[in-house]
């Protein structure tokens, strides 16, 4: 889909934090909507969103922001979504589409179904699988959306054309839409996202319980840092995510505890063969985990571009290509050396987009080549 034409006339962005801000910046820089009206309970965040170009103007209330909006994006904590929909519902125009960016879906959909029944307003749950250790509008970066899987869970009865329009918008941001049922969404993200956060936190806590946290911090190497990186996330956000997906997450934890118990027994009896098999199977599965933009998503046409070691280079590349209507489906950092730069692998859904990107990048002085 070309990024030159607006998909929606007016969009309301309720919540201007990391994800809301990143999405707003991308929608505006690619002219995917004609106007974004923002609202945030934090006046400072709203002002900074305006300064950073995530919104065209701010509103004094959520109700004011959604008046006349064709699309309403709820970039708020998961446990706030239903109450916010209840607040803005009387102000929505017929045909308006509401979407969120929450990490869980089933509870939201169950509570919204009776609320929206009989109304000409459509809810399509959204979940961009993107994030950062940064938080708030200061950390907003439209490059977070590049090649990110963007899960969409439409409410039952959503007209096909309504869903297709939002899918087109998501594609134009550079993300990769994937339609999924709410129950399946919550089960899968419990395993792929929520459980790793709990495990990271538990690993950190396990070092505290022995009273040797200072020494552990001193000795902590790449394995500990990599495994616990996600523990840097917002405690408030992750509290709400866990509570809203507690059933699926509890089942995932139970299965994980079973694995740990088997490991404990293997260690106690000194079962070298079982331990080796455990690590071998884990390694083989980990090797098969697809890069972003692979696996269940379509095969891509790829090129590799050498880039300098300068801040914002990925964003500049994405903007350069996006301004000419070339949509990047996947970005992967292949190798980087400090002060020397590195290489990026760019994926495109259409071969002609790859060829156009290759020509443009070379014309702009980048060294790039196709991957066949």
List its salient traits.
Rossmann fold, eight-stranded mixed β-sheet, 6-phosphogluconate dehydrogenase C-terminal fold, 3 domains, 372 residues, four-stranded antiparallel β-sheet, single chain, VC0802-like, alpha/beta
Quick recap:
The protein is an alpha/beta fold and 372 residues long. It is built from 14 helices and twelve strands.
Cα distance, first to last residue?
Answer: 24 Å
Based on CA atoms alone, the radius of gyration comes out at 22 Å
β content, as a range?
15-25%
What is the mean pLDDT?
87
Helical stretch count?
Answer: 14
Flag low-confidence runs: 292-297, 335-341
Helix content: 40-55%
Structural class: alpha/beta
Shape descriptor: globular
CATH topology value of the largest domain: Rossmann fold
Superfamily (CATH H level) name of the largest domain: NAD(P)-binding Rossmann-like Domain
Tell me which CATH architecture of the largest domain applies here.
3-Layer(aba) Sandwich
- According to DSSP, the number of beta strands is 12
Explain this structure to me?
The chain has 372 residues and is of the alpha/beta class. The chain has 3 domains: 8-180, Rossmann fold, CATH 3.40.50.720; 185-288, 6-phosphogluconate dehydrogenase C-terminal like domain (6-phosphogluconate dehydrogenase C-terminal fold, Orthogonal Bundle); 301-371, VC0802-like. The chain has helices spanning 18-29, 43-52, 62-66, 81-88, 106-116, 160-172, 182-209, 213-219, 222-228, 235-244, 246-268, 272-288, 313-322, 351-363, and strands at 8-14, 33-39, 57-58, 71-74, 97-100, 122-128, 149-154, 176-179, 301-307, 330-337, 341-348, 367-371. The strands form 2 sheets. Strands 3-2-1-4-5-6-7-8 form an 8-stranded mixed sheet, sandwiched between helices. Helix 1 (18-29) links the parallel strand 1 and strand 2 (33-39). The longest helix is centred in the middle third of the chain and has 28 residues, at 182-209.
